[in-house]
């Protein structure tokens, strides 16, 4: 395609293999999970062009992709990778806590009873 080519965001997401179908891409955009150059994409018909930066929230991950070109078809993964440059932050390792996370505190006696407390309650109810 031409250097100044523009393409609908839903079509581009489908061609880049971010989602499995165009209808899923349209739903993703309408749900507000896609940003084009920091602005929320309002419609599936919003246009992207080479140089735009997309921020996509997908399956609990945040993808940051720079658009390198418009797609012609939904081809193999190697062809799809030529449409964008991945600028996403590296994912956190499993089991590694987020540094800003505050450990959950629970006051004694609040929340669900322990197994021992349930047995004591059952004993009290049986005695009646």
Describe this structure in words.
- By secondary structure, the protein is an alpha+beta fold.
- The chain has a domain at 7-86: Structural Genomics Hypothetical 15.5 Kd Protein In mrcA-pckA Intergenic Region, Chain A (Roll).
- The chain is 26% helix and 20% strand.
- It is built from 4 helices and 7 strands.
- It has helices at residues 9-15, 22-30, 77-80, 115-127; strands at 7-8, 34-36, 39-40, 47-48, 53-58, 61-67, 84-86.
- The protein has a 5-stranded antiparallel β-sheet with strand order 3-2-5-6-7. A two-stranded antiparallel ribbon has the order 1-4.
- A hairpin with a 2-residue loop joins strand 2 (34-36) and strand 3.
- The protein is elongated, with a radius of gyration of 24 Å.
- The N and C termini lie far apart (82 Å).
- The model has no long low-confidence stretch (mean pLDDT 87).
């Amino acid at each position: 395609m031409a250097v100044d080519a523009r393409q609908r965001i839903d079509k581009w997401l489908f061609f880049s293999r971010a989602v499995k179908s165009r209808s899923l891409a349209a739903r993703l955009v309408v749900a507000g999970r896609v940003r084009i150059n920091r602005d929320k994409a309002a419609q599936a018909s919003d246009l992207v062009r080479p140089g735009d930066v997309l921020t996509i929230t997908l399956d609990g991950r945040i993808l940051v992709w720079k658009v390198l070109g418009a797609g012609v078809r939904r081809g193999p993964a190697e062809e799809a990778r030529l449409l964008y440059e991945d600028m996403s932050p590296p994912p956190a390792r499993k089991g590694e806590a987020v540094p800003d996370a505050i450990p959950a505190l629970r006051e004694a006696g609040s929340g669900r009873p322990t197994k021992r407390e349930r047995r004591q309650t059952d004993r009290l109810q049986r005695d009646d």
